[in-house]
UniProtKB/TrEMBL annotation:
It is found in: Cell membrane. It comes from the Bacteria. Belongs to the cation transport ATPase (P-type) (TC 3.A.3) family. Type IB subfamily. This is Cation-transporting P-type ATPase B. The chain holds residues 493 to 796 of 850 of the full protein.
């Protein structure tokens, strides 16, 4: 189904920016107890900026950025957009102290591009097999890179590793910003008696720093999960008898959105997320999550 094929549940729902797949959805909104919130694009803006390019010893920062950007140019992921844009448009800080700037300009073409949701991308650029992704995809990082990785994560930045021809060559660190209304959105959910939990494929330290900013405690953070582990997290809560809502925007969230008792897709999210969801919010304001649940409950009371 395309987003426009979604049934508009109530006149009021449409007015306030909530599309409901069908009237049967309303019933699930009444029973929801736990609300899993995806981090990137749901709680944060998902408009990431490259903050540093950190080459491994003996590697060149501009080359790390250039080859990574060539592959990421074929991806829609927020990290990919940040890297491709940085390479094309800006000079970005390189080195731990940002001691010099690199700019790349024209990106070389990529062949054999492949994207693995929640892990990263790979492709062949100028004869090199290039990999950009979650640090865990690299078996071993040089000590210097591992130390930089810890530092970037402690600063709340998401760092991805760039490697080619079987060797990690550097890190690219990106920063996201928490949406201005995210803390209020979490407070709204609590006022409805709901239990908000942050769910993300990103590193624990990054997740905790975002959680702290929006009023979610460390014990309510589930981090470093692959897309199928997001589904497992939903199932685990369901097995404990919880009725679970999941809020997300990405391809990596689609399976969890489908598994949840109530799936909510953020406005501006991917088609995959929208198609897997019961409710679609027409804009990216996370306060619409509580609004949607409150409105659906009120609509149900009116019908009954
Ligand atoms: P989230 O759950 O926060 O929305 P994702 O599941 O999309 O995050 O991504 C989890 C992790 O996988 C990212 O933090 C990153 O390390 C890696 N990753 C995913 N896609 C890409 C990409 N296109 N380029 C580099 N790394 C990626
Ligand atoms: Mg996301």
């Amino acid at each position: 189904a395309t987003p426009t094929a979604l049934l508009v549940g109530t006149g009021r729902g449409a007015q306030v920016g909530i599309l409901i797949r069908g009237p049967e959805v309303l019933e699930s909104t009444r029973r929801v107890q736990t609300v899993l919130l995806d981090k990137t694009g749901t709680v944060t803006s998902g408009r990431m900026q490259v903050v540093a390019v950190l080459p491994a010893p003996g590697e060149d920062a501009a080359e790390v950025l250039r080859l990574a950007a060539a592959v990421e140019d074929a991806s829609e992921h927020p990290i990919a957009r940040a890297i491709a844009d940085a390479a094309r448009e800006h000079a970005v800080a390189a080195g731990a102290a940002g001691e010099h700037a690199v700019a790349v300009g024209v990106l070389p073409p990529v062949a054999d591009f492949a994207n693995t949701a929640g892990l990263g991308v790979r492709g062949t650029v100028e004869g090199h097999a290039v990999l950009v992704g979650r640090p865990q995809v690299f078996v071993e990082l040089p000590d210097a890179l591992a130390a930089e990785l810890d530092r970037e994560r402690a600063a709340g930045h998401t760092a991805v590793v760039v490697g080619w021809d079987g060797r990690p060559r550097g890190l690219i660190s990106v920063a996201d910003t928490v949406k201005p209304t995210a803390a209020a959105a979490v407070a709204d959910l609590r006022r409805l008696g709901l239990h908000p939990v942050l769910l993300t494929g990103d590193a624990e330290a990054v997740a905790r720093s975002v959680a702290a900013e929006v009023g979610i405690a460390d014990e309510d953070v589930i981090a470093e999960v692959l897309p199928e582990e997001k589904v497992a997290a939903v199932r685990r809560l369901q097995a404990q008898g919880r009725v679970v809502a999941m809020v997300g925007d990405g391809v990596n969230d689609a399976a969890a959105l489908a598994q949840a008792d109530l799936g909510l897709a953020m406005g501006g999210g991917t088609d995959a997320a929208i198609e897997a969801s019961d409710l679609t919010l027409v804009n990216a304001d996370p306060r619409l999550v509580a609004d949607a649940i409150r409105l659906s409950r009120a609509t149900l009371r009116t019908i009954k």
